[in-house]
Design goal:
This protein is mainly beta and 128 residues long. 0% of the residues lie in helices and 38% in strands. A hairpin with a 2-residue loop joins strand 2 and strand 3.
Length: 128
Amino acid sequence: MASDDWTKVCVASELTQDMPMAVSWEGVAVCIYRIGEKVFATADTCSHGNASLADGDIIGYEIECPFHQGRFDVRTGAATLLPCRLSIATFNALEKDGAIWLQNKNDDAPNKVSTTDAQASSPISEER
């Protein structure tokens, strides 16, 4: 794996099923998730309040904010449950060679979402 394209952020065994983990990557607080056989990465800070999503609960493919129980889809960054309305950034992540890797930032990253984007295209639910 080319080190100029990807950065190792943790040993794979440190990231356990359904337990989010905060890491610092290129000066950004990132939350990484293991759900099933896949790993995902989003911004660690909720767009609604100053909460670390790593302190939240994973429900399906959503992370629930520990402050007000709003939710985000970890695959897309879309806000899925009020009071959260703005999406959060997502980053390309993978598990390889016993480590979790994040793709180095560039404008061509296919699932990178700006936190300044307006609401994501998926509808937001008031209750689940």
